[in-house]
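EI: anyone free to look at a 109-residue chain?
SC: sure, send it
EI:
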Amino acid sequence: MQMYKPLLVRSPITIIFGGYLGSLMFLFFVTAVGNLEATLFGKNFQLKLPEIVLSMAISLIAAGMVHRICFTTCLIFSLMTIYYMNKLSQKTYAAVAPVAVPTKSRRHK
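SC: here you go
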């Protein structure tokens, strides 16, 4: 993003695109950290808040060094990204609990 800074700050649309690039960097950082932890600690290990905050901070700093509006749009896009990642993860990996079926009693009144 630093290499293309003159192109990214040329117009408002490209500034917003710079924030989107920062959110993609956030997505890749979160994926990389999650894969590293799954490799080191086992498949059932999940990302916690500190890892997400660290990935968010790194991507926000990188976007903020391009333009301050890139920082803001990166934050917005990253929050949307983490919301949809969580939604997809819950849909894919959530354990389905069996539903209790009510039984009829055989006692007559």
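EI: The two ends are 77 Å apart (CA to CA).
SC: 👍
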